[in-house]
Amino acid sequence: MFDSHCHLHDARMREITAQAVARAEQSGLRGLLLAGVDRESWPLQDTLRRAFHSPHFAIGVAYGVHPQSIPELTVEQLPAQLTALREAALGRLTCDGKTLLPPHAIGELGLDSYTEQTRAALPAQVTAFRDQLALARELDLPVVLHILRTHPESLRLLKQDGLPKSGGVIHSYSGSAQQARQYLALGLHLSFAGGVTRPNAPRLWAALQEVPDDRLLVETDAPDQTPWPHRPALCEPSFLPAVIASVALIRKQSPQHIATITCRNAQQLFRLEPL
Ligand SMILES: [Zn+2]
Fold it and tell me: How far is the CA of 225 from the centre of ligand 1 (A)?
């Protein structure tokens, strides 16, 4: 099993990071990807990668500027973060005397119109989205996309600008089956989070059934999106088997099969050594 998207570097997990990694290993996970949020998150991700990556457990990292972070950035801070992202992606960004290891992917990037605050920042989100997409294409790094309530606009931008050759993933997929087919036609992977474990999510289940085995990923998005059976606990990567169980049930495949293919897909997409 591989958790293709989580935030162990989130402040809510700071006290329990080591235990969360240990519990993930005990649950049978072979690794996880830490998704970036903003410049402040990148050195924390680098620290976790150096501390917990081992021959038994792979830590992948994505650096990006999350669409939900953009409303909090000033007009000067956003371009400065995008410049810093280029340096980080090239393995040249130094924070507190330490040069960050280059990432496995660019992200999270995308568009989010979930709240009034994010909706108001959509023009800046579009700029940051296209800028990060261009960087990923230039360096041929896969992208980790966050797309919430903006699927038509995002599809339009992705088709217009193009994806890196190494592709990418829509994390915590939330669109329709018809939109899923369009993302798949662009060569993207789709990753499913705790939403699939809800007792009634027919739209998401229909989308899940569209995804071929070689494009499917699973994630916890920890510390958010706790799978239904574990509520109300804070979400952590060791809850991934609950997501896999629901995915298997809906796709009429075995949990073992889902675990195997999603682990292999993540290792290939993020170019992590198979463990
Ligand atoms: Zn995330």
Answer: 10
